[in-house]
Amino acid sequence: MTSPIRQCYDAVRETIGQERAERLGRIDSRDVRRFTVAVRGEEPRPEDPVHPLFLTSILHWGTGPGGSGLRPDGLGPDDTHGLPVDEVRVMGAGQEIVVHRRPEPGTVVTIHTSVTDADYRHGRTGELLIVRVRRRFGDDSGADLVTCHETFLAR
Amino acid sequence: MTTNITPDPAAIVPGTVLPEWRVRPTNLQLFRFSAVTWNAHRIHYDQEYARVEGYPNVLVQSHLHGAFLAEALVAWLGQDLLFRELSWRNKHYAVPGDELTVSGTVVAVEREAGEHVFEIDLAEHNQGGTLCAPGRAVVVTGGARR
After folding, report:
1. Which of B98, B108, B100 is nearest to B131 (CA)?
2. Which domain holds residue B116?
3. What Pfam families does the annotation carry (chain A) (predicted)?
4. Chain A residues lying within 8 Å of B71, measured CB to CB
5. B79 touches chain A (CB under 8 A)
6. Number of folded domains that form chain A
7. Is residue B36 part of a domain?
8. pLDDT (tens digit per residue) in A85-134
9. CA-to-CA dists, residue A103 to A36, A46, A52, A59, B32, angstroms
10. Residue A59: which of B29, B39, B146 has the nearest Cβ?
11. Chain A residues close to B41, C-beta within 8 Å
12. Contact assessment for residue A99 and residue A52, using Cβ atoms and an 8 Å cutoff
């Protein structure tokens, strides 16, 4: 019988190279300031720029589902960037971001998401799935803002 | 959180060591970070769930570790710093009350049109010396930037 992790790996492999495009919405200056307060613990100056990780840290730009629509771990179905990982535990393992142009409040953001790689390992500590996702954030003119390669681990 | 005196960028050379930057994350900080990123994962606010998962407390978010690396650079080089690249890996968890120390070393420098471009290796350790998040950044200061 195939394990949930192995099934997940097989499903993720099927999605490699498929790109999803989505319009996320406008960057709200209040959210930008709140992000800085959350990170820094103090009020930002009016002239402070958008934090370099603002775009790539937000899991969900919409409302998401109500409580009954969340997984047991609290994540929503769209919080894992479309990865078919409903039956496994998922955790973030880091990012590599390239800033092409610093986003500004008021910018309308679009995103293109694709799985670039998946690896399955079965070692002493059990099964492990490693997934790499590329997210390309742009503005509504098509100009790139930030490219992010993020690694997820699933057990 | 610690703050530093901004250095003269022209004096920064490969091998320059950043002043250590320290932060002690709190439950309030984790709550606010989860809220602003709309991250409902229970591992960051539900202590009982975190313990069932084998951790001593709720966990500092993956992205907050990365943000701490960025903050160490901002504290050193100033708010007008421009990030070209930033990366990190989550190697070990952290919980509220841990004292996290970010250290770094400049590994390459370029001077172009009045700008100073620094490539910096970074590392975040906890109070026990365990490496939580190694990272790397390419940042620009000075000149007319984007």
Report:
1. B100
2. 12-25+64-141
3. FAS1_DH_region
4. 39-40
5. yes
6. 1
7. no
8. 777 888 899 999 999 999 999 999 999 999 999 999 998 889 999 999 99
9. 14, 15, 9, 17, 22
10. B39
11. 73-75, 79
12. yes
Task: Note whether B3 contacts A: Cβ–Cβ < 8 A.
Answer: no
Let me know if residue B80 belongs to a domain. Answer: yes
At residue B1 the predicted structure's pLDDT band, cuts being 50, 70 and 90, is low
Chain B: residue whose CA lies nearest to A74: B41
CATH for B75: 3.10.129.10
Q: What is the predicted pLDDT for the residue at A71?
A: 86
Range of the domain at A43: 4-154
Q: What is the mean pLDDT of residues B11-29?
A: 97
- For chains A and B, what is the number of CB pairs under 8 angstroms? 114
Q: How many domains does chain B have?
A: 1
Q: Report the gap between the CA of B37 and the closest CA in chain A (Å).
A: 4
Q: Backbone phi, then psi, for A28, in 5-degree steps?
A: -90, 130
Q: Which tens digits make up the pLDDT trace of B76-135? A: 999 889 999 999 999 999 999 999 999 999 999 999 888 999 999 999 999 999 999 999
